[in-house]
Fold these 4 entries.
Entry 1:
Amino acid sequence: MLKTFSIGGIHPEENKLSAQSAIQELPIPKIATIPIAQHIGAPAKAIVKKGDEVKVGQVIAQSSGFVSANIHSSVSGTVFKVDDVMDATGFRRTSIIIKVDGDEWLEHIDRSEDLVTEITQTKEEIIKRVGDAGIVGLGGATFPAHVKLSVPPGKTAEVLVINAVECEPYLTSDHRVMLEKADEIMVGIEILMKALEVKKAIIGIENNKPDAIAHMTQVATKYSGIEVCPLKTQYPQGGEKQLISATMKREVPSGALPIEVGAVVQNVGTAFAVYEAIQKNKPLFERVATITGKSLKNPSNWKFRVGTPVSDIIEAAGGLPEDTAKIVGGGPMMGKALVSVDVPLTKGSSGLLLLAEEETARKATKACIRCGKCVSVCPMGLEPYLLMVLADKKEYERLENDAVMDCIECGSCSFTCPATRPLLDYIRLGKGKVGQIMRARK
Amino acid sequence: MNIIVITILALCAIGVAAAIILYFVAQKFKVYEDPRIDEVEEALPAANCGGCGYPGCRGFAEALVKADDISNFNCPVGGAAVMSHVGGILGHDVKAADPTVAVIRCNGTCDNRPKTNIYDGATSCTIAASLYSGDTGCQHGCLGLGECVDACNFDAMYMDKETGLPVIIEDKCVSCGACVKACPNSIIELRKKGPKSRRIFVSCVNKDKGGVAKKACSVACIGCGKCVKECPFDAITLENNLAYIDYNKCKLCRKCVIVCPTNAIHELNFPPRKEKPATKPTAATVKPVAKPVAKPEADTAVKSEDKENGTSDNK
């Protein structure tokens, strides 16, 4: 039997429409809008000003703390202005707007496709380079990668778990990267293993990608210590704690980080970015995203430069279908709807999903019928129906006692609720408030 | 017969003994409570709204009795009458606080502030605000989901279906501040009621630069500073592209209302002007309703195909 996590989980329709479409390169935009906050943690500090000439790969915003990341220019040209621009949530945030002129890269970036397998750098150098290259978790949460690689004193990492699950329906970007860049990923994993001083890496892949499992297993034989672990297709298999439970049979305690059980989880896309940063001197300014949707002419996977407007990738995939009612940034389960097509794609953009009215319309909220479905699907073993009521009634103390902070916001509860209650919306609200209270207490 | 007498006597003896014990126990563990607390609580309006900052009227009464100086305490519901009564009970001087009332500092009606997307998530302003900037181009203004109305315990608010904005019924508003706390965008403010309920305020909280604000909403404060220059009493300050009128300094001269180029400054409950200024019609006189404005330019309206919904949704 295939491995999976211990409790809960759902199986939404997979809809991997773009799985057979090879990664294409998206044309460089005319104007790139690069937000200075593309990661969890403190926003970077812009170090360029209006009129400055920038090259591809140049640092344009400096990391402003340990949990922060550098931002590099994805294009070459002139800085048009540094201004507050609408981001995907509609709020105005500081961004660097660059007028593109040609495509001139910094000289030390190796643009060849040759595979470099020899790892010459030491552990410290690797971690520093990963930080300098502005690499963040490319699964969507955008947590700065160098932070996870810096194992806190007193703890030891035993296993590196590579998240190649791609459990979100529709998305196929990781799938395609694995098929096309398997060797690079393996070297990236070896680099990560060296940085963490671990001897073992497990790549978790859901078995709805048999071609990727076969290809990765075959390539992995060339590298020591890396094994591929096929997993059951079950959402949210790609949740950090779920993945550890499935691959290592260890449970991360409530409120603790994976390092507590000796695990470090990195996304497969991150491994590829690490390869490029260490072996090719290439910082993170481009990545692969899926654009998909049932009415879309050409669901496909694109390598894009950070800062490209969403409208460009839609145009490249055949234009906006007539019946589009919602554009979701990310997958259908955890993605967030965009307020406009003029917002830029960022480091965290793993996909764009165009949904028609009938797919996305919310049904009216009905009374809870106490069926307990949300409880049985919750992969963290929480009681979503109760948490929702507590959040609505502002019972923050009880919310905290009922472990609301363990919620991974996967949305399985809302997905499964027969009374179509907006469970996650309220739980997320309560989680935010409880988080505030807990921080204030410290 | 004898048995009955003995029984009665025995029971009486037990009763008396228990009564004596209870009396001494009660004396021993007596908790002294100032009788004035009850008296003061009686005088308070029993709304238990928390507008004074204390947990209910009882809590407020305890605080009042404990305090040496109650001139800084105020019951917004009871106002000066109740406070002077309380002052009488406690033998303290009471400074009559000016009555306040809640005002909505947003005039982003459907006409003034065109919608750029549709929200279909949970009906809660706080949730909407945590997800995104709102269904219009303005990221500061009213989200229109009525959390303030739900918070009001005095039926003093309702959502105006036409404008999509909450409306405060002045006579019912007790200025408890529940709506102020409920609003995630902090658009509601408790302001001095003013003589004959006349007051002037900037009906906008948009801190964006003028051009951005104006593009999102035709009656936004664009931070031009005309009112600041016009005000003879230095009552208006401009911070982050937003004017704010200090109600303690404002003498209700209404000069700022006339000069405001976007009609963002509202005057309430004033009689109609005798001689109308040549340039502009007067602002709304009863409640902040939509003023006649030109339809937004074509370029400010988002193309229909660009209208995306703004919620994170689980399909």
Entry 2:
Amino acid sequence: MSTLDSKIPEGHISQKWTDYKDHLKLVAPNNRPKIDIIVVGTGLAGSSAAASLGEMGYNVKAFCFQDSPRRAHSIAAQGGINAAKNYQNDGDSIFRLFYDTIKGGDYRAREANVHRLAEVSGNIIDQCVAQGVPFAREYGGLLDNRSFGGTQVQRTFYAAGQTGQQLLLGAYSALSRQIGLGRVKMYNRHEMLDIVKVDGKARGIIARNLVTGEIERHSAHAVVLASGGYGNVYFLSTNAMGSNVTAAWKAHKQGAYFANPCYVQIHPTCIPVHGTNQAKLTLMSESLRNSGRIWVPKKKEDAEAIRAGKLKPTELAEDERDYYLERKYPAFGNLVPRDVASRAAKEVCDEGRGIESNDTNEGVYLDFSTEIQTKGRQAAYAKGNHNPTPEEVTALGKQWLEEKYGNLFTMYQKITDENPYETPMKIYPAVHYTMGGVWVDYNLQSTIPGCFVTGEANFSDHGANRLGASALMQGLADGYFVLPYTLSNYLADEIRTGKISTDLPEFNEAETRVKELINTFLANNGTKSVDYFHKKLGLIMWNKVGMGRNEKGLNEAIVELAELKAEFNKDVYVPGSADELNPQLEKALRVADLIELGQLMAMDALQRNESCGGHFREEYQDAEGETLRDDQNFSFVGAWEYKGDNINDEVLHKEELKYEFIKIAARNYK
Amino acid sequence: MASKYINVNLKVWRQKNANTKGKMETYKLDNVSTDSSFLEMMDQLNEQLINERQEPIAFDHDCREGICGMCSLYINGRAHGPDNAVTTCQLHMRKFDDGATIYIEPWRSKAFPVIKDLVVDRSAFDRIQQAGGFVSVNTSGNTIDANATPIPKADADKAFEAAACIGCGACVASCKNSSAMLFVGAKVSQYALLPQGKVEATNRVLNMVRQMEEEGFGNCTNTGACEVECPKGISLENIARMNREFMKAMITAE
């Protein structure tokens, strides 16, 4: 029944992109100024796309809901960006990065897209260095690397614990240059509230000026959505408060299929929840797993004593600790992929060995004491001190940690009031990234012609689990090195189209839809705040569509979410008016879409009768509790088609995944 | 973490929009967990206001982990409040006593006009960046290999420390002259320290400084308040470096 054409080019995997690129249609420089492009979102994927397209000479309009494009949530990425440079001489190559990414994604990603990503990864680093991104360097002046989960090479480039910030500021600087030159028009504090289709093609958007409340029409020959992921469907996540699915969801409602919504990444190392007024969770970078060892007490009684404050973790003897990742996965140890590490943490906490004294007792230790000793001794030797005292070793080890991870340790201390140089960090998994997203073909085009989707907002590169330091890579690859080619190919047929009028009836209709929705919310006069519903949504999702899923829970979630949608529409109270800065109204519009998406996520998780990557169906696990894939029946991308207000009516389309160049196998990190 | 709960009195700046006059309003908020962040306390207050059918307070925020630079409150007379090296979203209520009175105001600067309540317009920073805060390299991917130009670690580290600026505007808000020199100095320094930035150094510093002045920011009189309140610890050395770059540019510019 599949109607999905992924448009993967013929040829050997290592030549597909090169050959394909060579035969794409071009738009001549003199024609580019006649063409308008809208880019929604200014994170890595959006900023890089807008800057590149502006530079090429197209007329670009870029939109972000923040007060500046520099604030998009890519900025918060900490640990690093992968690239197959093999600077560390540990046998890395494009093929290995490709292979690690496919395997890390539990064989649910599209081969051709992932290989292209690995191919351009090296260019990203070259590009960023040329832009003045200050990556970490060694004393010889060359770039430094570190390891990340799911790999056995050091291919991660970084800038302390602020790599996302430095890369985004790099892309923002390129974007700023184009804004200054007048080739990109920037709309800060604007939110896209609908997409406009004319004759079946994406021809513009309806946006709300968040300061004045004015509803604006913007037309273009193509629309690029780079609007990020939907982790905020869980209410508590590491996403920014404003991160939302609205742009992607509105496109979905207008005909863009939504792929693999159930693939969610729960990141293993976040600071545990402190209480019911908590609004967001904070990540502690995966890079810390290079230096920290994860453990819980072997005995339940010790965990209880720790939670009661009667025992300190530092007092527990070495042989009373269970370094469970090192025990279960000796080959990768603390650097197993995120989904594996998260499930292992849940498992030991479910056994009653969690160490956090909160409502759920959920938390495990991330301990740096071994690394302090190791690095301290190395540092002493490097200084010519071959008989350091224990105090000297400890001091030098802490100094080494501070240099590598200083900002993360400070952040941890500010939030928890505990000093991680002295006592192990407490961590627990939290929602972090969504692998699912708008379905796109090899050109990054959705099922709406002219609507392209990049970065976290699409589904294409990470399968059922994303490896660490690969989100930044994908965002920049899409924006700098893929979209400029594939979008131009589409636009080559638009050079005779001329300006798209915003007076077309399709713009009228879309604007009316948006205005009616806003007025309905403001006139609703219900009894409960938007956050009340958002928290309720989050609880249903976390408990039933979270780290462990089963048929019964998913069926319940589908019903509960449909009820929640009805209750929200009936009883939400949105204060203020439409023609002013109104954060509650913004939130209401976003939560309405998140509730619908949540229901689709549960439906997707229910149809996928297997476990893969971040999607763990409790019914499908092996004797040791590892994910059990069903490649016979589920080696496909599940793409959902919207069929009207009742989400239960959505229709599933399947894109079969063909592995021609990688032998599909069970994932093994042991 | 043993949570404690405290009660606080809040004096908050309320202003409907840029064209109306604002004033301080008083609110009482009970049962605030000391483990809550300052903005979670603001969420709790807004939830209370919504339930009382009063208008919630508008304030800027997004990442809530101290890196996006969107949050911006002037708390008890200090940008980002009574803690060092944090943004407002990283400030925690354990820094306040039970029964405390807390004054909450927007950034105050002519170049940052109030939009509503505690929300100000910082687009002046974007325009300064657009005037020269970049290296003019196209995103073709056809640049030289990233390791072709070694950069001394000390320079790379200093460039990174300058580039760590989050553009929140605390420097401007803390300065008695509303000077943006720390912000501009950090950007100019990042590029001045790197070989990639040197080619355009002259025009960059002249253009960015010109734009800074056009936006209405004041001058630097070496008080150093900006450095004290900067959540990212951006050093005053960056202002000195910008001044050197500026002087050099004045002499050598064509």
Entry 3:
Amino acid sequence: MKLTTKFTLWYFGIMLFVLLIGGYIVYYEIQNKLSRVEVVRHQRLNDLIAEQVRTGGDYSNHPTRKRATVTPIAADSVPKGISTYYTRGIGWNPEFQENEYRLLVTSFYNIKGQWYRITTYSFIPSFYQLLPGVVDSFKWIFLLLLVLVIISAGLISKYILAPFKRTLRVIQSFDLKQKTVIRLPDTQTSEFRELNVFLQKMTEKAREDYRTLKEFTENTSHELQTPTAIIRGKLDLLMESDIRDEQAILIAETQNALERLSRIHSSLTLLTKLENHEYEANTTVCISQLTRETLNSFVELIQLKSLTLLTTIAEKIYVPLHPSLADLLLTNLIGNAIRHNVPPATFAEDESEMEAEEGFGGQGGGLIQVNLTREGLIVVNTGRQPQVPTAELFERFKKGNSGSDSIGIGLAIVRQICDLSHFTIDYQYRDGFHCLAVGFSPRVAASKLLQNLSLPLHSRA
Amino acid sequence: MKVLIIEDNQELARNIRDFLAREGYICESCDTLEAAREKLELFQYDCILLDIGLPDGNGISLLNLIRAEYKDSNVLIISAKNALDDKIIGLEKGADDYITKPFHLAELHARIRAVYRRKNLGGTSIVAFNEISLNTDTFEVRVLDHLLDTTPKEFDLLLYFIVNKNRVLSRQAIAAHLWGDYTDNLANFDFVYQHVKNLRRKISGAGGVDYISTVYGLGYRFNSHKAE
């Protein structure tokens, strides 16, 4: 809900409350004033009647006696301290032959030693007669206020919130990597000024932290790579010296560990760089072309493993992606599909003694399928059933097969690239096929792509 | 070949020096930009190995000077920062190649030779060893003048072996050379084995000497003395 709408609604609530109380007060005041005026008039009338009684004579048909009763009373029944009081209530109106709201004013007079009670009355508007008038007038007041509030809220908020909206716009376009400090508009509103000061400080801090982190990453990279390079060089030199077999094994094992170290390190550095958004996509790349090139660079590995490659690559598909990232994405996906490719025959044998060879003509029987469409890229390969849920394989250092030599960071990189580029990604295992889909548009879920996927004809059955 | 190593890390510089000295290269090293400038003024080098991060400045700044004054030298950038910017700027400013730490010394040597070949041999792009000759333009291998049917990777591999002949090449170094940085090399050893096996079979098949031998536990070696 917009701030203005919220304010307006609250304002309406308060208005309604105030108007209800106001209505009651107005009603009460009017009733009171009316009674007061009537009471004064009746007092004068009572005085007049008392005067008439004092002078004597027959006044029974006099207009003053129309709604008056004069009763002589005993002295002891005269209330003490007051000479006049009034009551309100329902009374019979003989003229209309119905009950109406009535005001009775009773006064006591001592005339020539005799006490008289003189009561006169008149009919006044009752609560129910006054109420519609009060409600009506307040209804109009309320409506008028409503219209004014809505109009003014729109106009005033536009004026008052303008600096806030400008600040929002600046913040939305803020980029950690930008070289300059953000410029926030000046404002007279103290809250906004505080907000701006805070944002200024915060973004400055964020930029500073980002720069430190970036520097740290680069320094670590530098500081670690140099010793690694030295060790590697020493091992290279050591290898060529006169060594015995067992020493050769030691060197080889050291080299393996070193290789791993350096690979993990460079992968982590890469992931950090990705997280820091160091590779922004300023242009689009032709993913069709790149996919073909990547497949070409892997063609020998595919042949060495006797894999069947099926491709459907649509022409001229451009996606917004940094060229290096596109390359990384494809290399990792296709490389994985080759490396973890296990022909179904091999593992079908492990599971049961079924006549596995028959289903897959040719040698190996391993298969890779690469589909590239406008919606996304799908890479399918034959392989063993993963030991962990496929979704977990996107996490760092998670491996489908704990025995394998890979470090298990390729898919983490793939996912990071997809997250950065607002691509969707999904990984499923179906009937001996590992299916990995990347959807190029956030609107197209990668899982949807996999649903529509027709698996290669080679199936395990 | 005369090589100038501009690298602030003494150990690394010594590794490179030791390795290249065995090829009969004359190597000198220095660890600052200032010293490098002095050396460049006094001597002529065929190849300059330039580290980007030096104590007294960025190695890139030296590139301008080298390109302006010493056009004949090849420049190979050595950097620990696998930062893309460095790579692009370095190559734009006229470096001939770029190698990222940690590298295998054999890889560095192969790069130096490749750069040297491109620039200094003026058109002839034949690398020959006894009966084997490789044409780096057409990617053709000839053994005793028979054209060998090799794949691009096998060509690469053979060239790598010949450039680094008589050296033990570890499987890691070969995998890194053939498949680059981002592939998970550890799993590629089978492929290295396959490639080497195929290459040996093809050379022997064409009547060539099987120069390549397995070094127990470590990798492979191209033995030039097998010819005799």
Entry 4:
Amino acid sequence: MTTANQAATGQTAVSTAVKTLALNPEKIAVTPTIGDYHILGDILMERCLGYTTMPCPPMTKRTLELGAKNSPDMICTPFKITLGNQIEAAEQGANVFIMPGAGCRLGFYDILQRQVLKDLGFKVELISLFDYVPTAKRLFQTLSSINPDLTQEHFDRVFATVVQITLEMDKLADFMRRNRAFEITKGDFQRAYQDYLQEVIDASCADAAADVGIKYDKILKAIPLDKPRRPIRIGILGEIYVVVEPFSNCHMEDWLTEHKVEIDRPFDLTRMAMAINSVPELIEKSGGYVDYNLGSTANEVIAQAHSMMQDGIDGIIHVKPASCSPEITAMTILQNMSRDFGVPVMYLTFDTETGEAGVHTRLEAFLDMITMKRQDDSVSEVVNQAVAEGNQAGINQKKGEGY
Amino acid sequence: MKSTLTIGIPRALLYYTYADLWLNFFKNIGVQTVLSPETNKEIAKVGINNSIDEACYSSKIFIGHVEYLLDKCDMVFIPRIENSGIREEYCTRIFGLYDLAVNTFPQAKILHAEVNYLYRKREIDAFIQIGEQLGVSTEESTLAYQQAADLAQAIQEERILQQEKMLASAENAEDFKILMVAHNYNSFDAVIGKDIISYFEENNIKVAFADYIKTKEAKLKAKKAYSSRINWRVSLEMIGGIQKYKDYVDGLVLISTFPCGPDSLFSEFIIRTVKDKPILSLVLDEHDAGAGVQTRLESFIDIITAAKTVEEAQL
């Protein structure tokens, strides 16, 4: 990956089969942080447009403050955080930002962000990748309107690579979340996963990316584990940005991992891309709780929650940014589901003012409650069994008396 | 066999857009309807108690109206309207209303049908479905819908015409005028916008409404002024209306309820881009006290009066 500094000193990325474009040092592109997915934006920018990429400045309290200060109050939190990212990156010399430009309110972020950045006096370009329709065709239209030399064939190759990387990344990360709490040497999974990200970004084509994926799949699966037969299993569901970006959810997954919890978080970019096109199927899978599309990813949340609860999960944490309206609708339905299935659900709302300690206290209480509930359940299972046996014995005895 | 059911219509959210269509349709097919009263403190309170506290105030009020109707009718009419045409979408709260009501009041009987032009589910199809559920033939429903839709359109056009006349006429040239930029379910709700409108009228200020505009016209104006990607119908109408009426008025009044999704973006956008008119932005929620709002209205009236005096002095 080429940073702005390297570009300035004349170093460009190693040229590979797809990286045929010479990078333009004048255009410094930044993808706002969202989990590890920014590497996908970087690949698109470098290989389709020939822009130099710069990693987004790490998120700090200042990012949140800058974002919140320049945003409307009622807007959802991802707007504030990404705006903070953009302002900090612009201060460090970035001049191109990419945003998805599709989704619910997310689709309009860039319209307002462009105005805010202009009012702040930054001369920057905002690329909205999808312009309302989240399809590969529309992505090609957007990119080729910026770079007229981009051919369909070249784009298809780059896009296939991006898709392959997304699939592999999500698969590895899911395996990691389920097992990270039980690694024998602390940090094994994180180290391997970071190595994977470093290596996969240089994959020149989809096949190369797949090879890297297979290699690291083996490495991750070989990490020695000490996993109990039935660990506490907690599901995380909710709005995609807060689910995926650890900074925005106060590193919730790290905390749960430290407390020996298996995390079931099926929600990632792969699932999100699938969810957009399969709302009718999701409605079918939601067990009669929902009849229509609720907007954004709310239907995915309901369907996931239903399958998790049927699966006998110990508890679910529903996360969302403040004022996320599809998720607020989903909450009403989750409450009913939680009551019917007897699975506890905790609702967490994250904003720029949310403190880490407060979240951790609530997680701790939730975990305690789940642990106690499981003990109760196993006690009552034993009791029930004993009662059943006793009844049977009683019946037998009565039968015996009768004779 | 025609049904003898009574259909309840909540006076909230989409009612304010579709009142003429809905009421006339049910009248035409001869089905009795009962309309919930104007929002009062009691309805609002029940709505708040039955909603998630983070939901928007307008949707809490809606839930209050549904609850009011539960024991006064056989079925509550909550159609599920995702959009009114391509790129004319409603917000996600509005299109989740049916599922929200079902999950809030599991015992409620709800009359519903889907309007979604993305999947070729037109408004007329929805009304035929509604008719079927009430034992009305397809022909009769179609006719009833056509009549009601024509009437509703004529009424809306007349409203727009009246407003254009009012703003352009020389008679009113001396009067102060303001443009109300708000969703119609906020402007006309008794606990949200109604008092604000009557306050302006008491002070001899004429009130025009940004959303008195044809959706097609609004779309064109919004596209020209901002972006073709804006696809929320309620926001389109507000932005298009501002472009259309801005030059005839002395100030803009933005009213939204907490926390409104579309407004959170576009109110800010309007404040940042409309620089030549004074703007008052009010965000209301269930904790509002009348006095605070009144102070802000008074100071806004002072501002537009002063602005006009300065303008005249410069001339």
